[in-house]
C-alpha cells in the first residue's frame, strides 16, 4: 500500500500517478471493501473541525492529495516531493487501466444526464471497459430499505471499482458507512463526473500549476463556493501557519 505522510492531522498518501493507479486497481482486484478519498483543502479543514470526519479520512485505504496546496503541504511538513493527484485526472487514468486489465466499474451519484454522458464517453473511448452499472440516487436521505436495495444491486453487479460522486463530505461518509457491506474499492471523486462527462470545463494545465483552479470554480459557482473558499481557505492558511510554528517552537497556547 502507498506510504502516508501527516499533513495537519490527516494522513495523506504519497507516490507517483502510476503508484496510485496500481494501488487502487489492486484493491479492486482483491475485492477489498475499502475506500479512497481525494483530499483537498476543504476536506482537511473539515477533518480539523470534526473528529468523526478525521477518522473517516484517516481510515481510507488511500487518501490522495487532490489539491495543489495539500500536495505542497506534504513536502512542507518534511515529506517527499509530491505531485497533486486530482480525482479529475485519476478517474480517466483508472478507467483506461481498468479496461487494459479487464476490471469492471460502476458509477454511483450525480444525475441520470451526467451518468449517460459519462457512459457514452467511456464506451466510445474505451470499448473494452466493463461498465457493470450506473445509478443516480435521489437527492435525499435514503430509507434503510432503499439503501439495502442499492447495496444489493451494486454487489450483484460485482464491480472492481465503484466511483462515487455525492459531494464532500457526504460521499466520504457514505463510503465509510458502506465499508464491509459493498465488496468493491469505492472512490469518492465528486465533481470529476461532470468534468469527465464534458458538462463542465477543466482549467488548462498551466493555470492549474499556478493554483488557479479555485478561482475558476468560484467564477463558475460564486454563490455555492464563496463561503467555502474564502472562509475555508483562510482557515487552512491559519492551521498551516500554526502547525509550522508548533513544529518549530514545540508549543503554542490553545486558541479557540
TrEMBL record:
<dbReference type="InterPro" id="IPR004629">
    <property type="entry name" value="WecG_TagA_CpsF"/>
</dbReference>
<keyword id="KW-0808">Transferase</keyword>
<dbReference type="GO" id="GO:0047244">
    <property type="term" value="F:N-acetylglucosaminyldiphosphoundecaprenol N-acetyl-beta-D-mannosaminyltransferase activity"/>
</dbReference>
<protein>
    <submittedName>
        <fullName>N-acetylglucosaminyldiphosphoundecaprenol N-acetyl-beta-D-mannosaminyltransferase</fullName>
        <ecNumber>2.4.1.187</ecNumber>
    </submittedName>
</protein>
<keyword id="KW-0328">Glycosyltransferase</keyword>
<dbReference type="Pfam" id="PF03808">
    <property type="entry name" value="Glyco_tran_WecG"/>
</dbReference>
Amino acid at each position: 500500500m502507498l506510504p502516508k505522510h501527516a499533513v495537519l492531522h490527516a494522513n495523506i498518501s504519497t507516490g507517483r500517478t502510476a503508484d496510485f493507479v496500481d494501488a487502487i486497481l489492486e484493491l479492486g482486484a482483491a475485492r477489498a471493501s475499502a475506500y479512497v478519498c481525494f483530499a483537498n483543502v476543504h476536506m482537511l479543514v473539515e477533518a480539523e473541525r470534526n473528529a468523526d470526519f478525521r477518522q473517516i479520512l484517516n481510515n481510507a485505504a488511500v487518501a490522495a492529495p487532490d489539491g495543489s496546496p495539500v500536495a505542497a503541504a506534504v513536502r512542507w511538513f518534511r515529506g517527499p516531493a509530491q505531485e497533486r493527484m486530482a480525482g479529475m485526472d485519476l478517474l480517466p487514468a483508472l478507467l483506461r487501466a481498468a479496461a487494459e486489465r479487464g476490471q469492471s466499474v460502476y458509477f454511483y451519484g450525480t444525475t441520470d444526464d451526467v451518468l449517460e454522458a459519462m457512459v457514452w464517453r467511456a464506451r466510445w473511448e474505451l470499448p473494452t471497459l466493463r461498465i457493470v452499472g450506473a445509478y443516480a440516487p435521489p437527492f435525499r436521505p435514503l430509507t434503510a430499505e432503499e439503501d439495502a436495495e442499492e447495496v444489493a444491486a451494486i454487489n450483484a453487479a460485482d464491480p472492481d471499482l465503484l466511483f462515487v460522486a455525492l459531494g464532500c463530505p457526504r460521499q466520504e461518509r457514505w463510503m465509510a458507512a458502506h465499508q464491509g457491506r459493498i465488496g468493491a474499492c469505492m472512490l469518492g471523486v465528486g465533481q470529476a463526473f461532470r468534468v469527465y462527462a464534458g458538462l463542465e470545463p477543466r482549467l488548462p494545465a498551466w493555470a492549474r500549476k499556478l493554483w488557479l483552479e479555485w478561482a475558476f470554480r468560484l467564477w463558475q459557482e460564486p454563490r455555492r463556493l464563496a463561503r467555502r473558499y474564502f472562509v475555508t481557505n483562510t482557515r487552512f492558511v491559519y492551521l498551516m501557519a500554526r502547525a509550522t510554528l508548533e513544529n518549530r517552537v514545540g508549543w503554542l497556547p490553545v486558541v479557540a
